[in-house]
Specification:
Largest sheet: 5 strands, mixed
Helix content: 25-40%
Number of helices: 13
Distance between the termini: 49 Å
Radius of gyration: 25 Å
Strand content: 15-25%
Number of domains: 2
Shape: elongated
Length: 381
């Protein structure tokens, strides 16, 4: 009886589909609960919060309390972030709001960042340098919820809202914040308030943001890599470039190239290994394994071009991964020519799909991050 292999692109991995909430939505809910507590002298056990997408959602409130008297009176509320079935560095974070009255400052809502919320140190993020890393949509959402909860008080006084995240500095080490110039904590993010399982919106946005930061700093070169290993490789290859030039685009080829062209980058370098390189040859906008499988014909053609034996070419056409081809050809001493053929094809594909006034080159490494070849666009003409 014949056995049918299941390849990476043949189906979808079983995944949960439970949605969660962004750090911005949780911050807004905490701020609303604290504002209500300041008015009622008791923080509610749950709170209804209007999300940026217009939906209203009920959140459980933890550690609600009102402390102090007079101008020193502060209401405190915590929302524990539930990211749903999305793998998220901030899942379980305690989004915390402390709200106090600003006497005789009618209508003012002053938003501050406390411990665990990052501080902006570079331009290009659309946020004030030196201010908290609370993005524009969450800022509005926090203010709108506080204003709705405390409308009567705001007729004659203002409110100061401080958002903090215990442990946020450690969480931030799992993000790209430091590269973007956000130090000391996480960012408060979210354009809809909802986190969708395995959503790519946040990562894609971080790619665009990183290019914007580099452009704002006056950089005209950008180095796109597909992950941490290729980035370390590219940094060794291009030691003269500022750290801001290096952007982990992950799977987001189209977003990265379109943003680079829009921001006037004149030189684009790409660092990649065989799998993602092949996906770039295919012209994919997103190179994630679950979007499309590797085109093994491309691998086989490159193998033929460097003189691989017919039986190995046939095996490559039937193999499940690009790594199989790379390792077998390396054993025959054909690695450099094989990867060079792929890099040339990738350059042709990328320049055709993302036209612009920039020069492109590709640097390829092996699975240990060791140099294999460097191809400039002149070689691809």
């Amino acid at each position: 009886m014949s056995e049918t292999k299941v390849r990476k692109g043949d189906g979808r991995r079983a995944r949960g589909n439970r949605t969660g909430f962004t750090t911005g939505a949780c911050s807004a809910a905490a701020a609303r609960a604290a504002a209500l507590g300041l008015l009622a002298d008791a923080v509610p056990a749950s709170v209804r919060c209007r999300l940026p997408n217009g939906n209203e959602v009920s959140f459980a409130v933890a550690d609600g309390r009102v402390e102090g008297d007079g101008p020193q009176r502060i209401a405190h509320a915590v929302i524990v972030k539930d990211a749903g079935d999305d793998p998220d560095a901030t899942h379980g974070a305690h989004l915390t709001a402390d709200v106090r009255v600003l006497p005789h400052r009618a209508g003012e809502i002053v938003l501050k960042g406390g411990p665990g919320v990052g501080t902006v140190t570079k331009e290009g993020l659309g946020l004030e340098v030196g201010g908290p890393a609370i993005n524009p949509v969450p800022r509005r959402n926090i203010r709108d919820n506080v204003a709705a909860a405390a409308a009567e008080l705001l007729d004659h006084d203002g409110l100061e809202v401080t958002i903090s995240v215990p442990g946020g500095e450690e969480m931030a080490k799992k993000t790209l914040n430091a590269r973007l110039g956000i130090v000391g904590g996480i960012s408060i993010l979210g354009t809809t308030g909802i986190v969708r399982p395995y959503s790519t919106a946040a990562f894609r946005a971080s790619v665009v943001q990183a290019i914007d930061v580099a452009a704002t700093q006056g950089q005209r070169s950008v180095v796109f890599t597909t992950g941490g290993r290729t980035e370390k490789f590219a940094m060794r290859q291009l030691p003269g470039l500022d750290e801001a030039c290096f952007v982990q685009m992950g799977d987001f080829v189209k977003a990265a190239f379109q943003t680079a062209v829009k921001r006037g980058m004149t030189r684009i370098h790409v660092g990649a290994m065989v799998g993602k390189l092949t996906k770039m040859c295919q012209g994919l906008a997103v190179t994630h394994a679950w979007k499309a499988e590797i085109d093994r014909d491309i691998l086989a053609e490159a193998a033929v071009a460097v003189g691989a034996p017919d039986d190995l070419v046939a095996e490559i056409r039937a193999a499940e991964t690009a790594r199989f081809a790379a390792e077998r050809l390396a054993a025959l001493g054909l690695s450099e020519g094989f990867h060079r053929a792929l890099a040339i094809k990738a350059i042709v594909s990328l320049k055709a799909r993302h036209p612009g006034d920039y020069r492109l080159d590709v640097r390829v490494c092996d699975f240990e991050g060791q140099f294999i070849c460097h191809v400039d666009e002149d070689e691809a003409r």
